[in-house]
Amino acid sequence: MSIHLVIIDAMNLIRRVHAAQPNPDDIASTAQVCCRALTKIIRSSEPTHMVAVFDHTEQDRGWRAELVPEYKQGRKPMPEALQQGLDTIQDAFWEMGIDSLLSSGDEADDMIATLALKVASHNGQVTIVSTDKGYCQLLQPTLRIRDYFQQRWLDSPFIEKEFSVAPQQLTDYWGLVGISSSGVTGVPGIGPKSASSLLNQYGTLDDLFAADNIEPKWQKKLEGNQELAMRCKQVATLKTDITLGFNLQDIRFSAK
């Protein structure tokens, strides 16, 4: 049997749905809208396996904050009503036949990346449902990312149009420009156009910093910032070796 695993970036979906509700305290309404979205996703993707991955709710920002102390420091906390209602939403998912996976210490992004690559490397089809472009570093023929809200695929042509680099260069790109939404600065003075131009010329951060023919205006900005760029790249790179503690059979999807 051919496998099609659909992974829902749960908080990415839930927080966007919740923010659009007229009454933020009405968690039942948020759950209903999320379930309607999942019904559409199931109908269009026909998964054989499915799981919704949730971030842990503790304030610990994990190993990335040890590399870049500003990482997610300015993020708004989850609305209290939503945090209190997550169990209700998870129960609603369960009623649909969708298991929930809760991270404990590791970020959901890393758990999703680990699971997705594990299945894709064994020739299973994987669809990650999220608006987060960070997953695009994982793109390959059997692994794709679906932006449910914009109804688009975050595929290689999208990445090349959006960032002017190839998917495999994204972490190098973010090492240079940073990720503003997560408080990751990148190299001061290097913007998106400069970063894509440099990577198109040199390929990788390692080759860029090893080059001896860089224009003086870029050399001046890069000088002394290799360690910073590498730390920012490491923060942007998804871990793919998390211990998951379950197997595919545990998340086989059967509509209830």
From TrEMBL:
The keyword Hydrolase applies. It holds the Pfam family 5_3_exonuc_N. Binds 2 Mg(2+) per subunit. Only one magnesium ion has a direct interaction with the protein, the other interactions are indirect. Binds 1 K(+) per subunit. The potassium ion strongly increases the affinity for DNA. GO terms for biological process: DNA replication, Okazaki fragment processing. Keywords: DNA-binding, Endonuclease, Hydrolase, Magnesium, Metal-binding, Nuclease, Potassium. This is Flap endonuclease Xni. Transmembrane segments: none annotated. The lineage of its organism: Bacteria, Pseudomonadati, Pseudomonadota, Gammaproteobacteria, Vibrionales. It comes from Enterovibrio norvegicus.
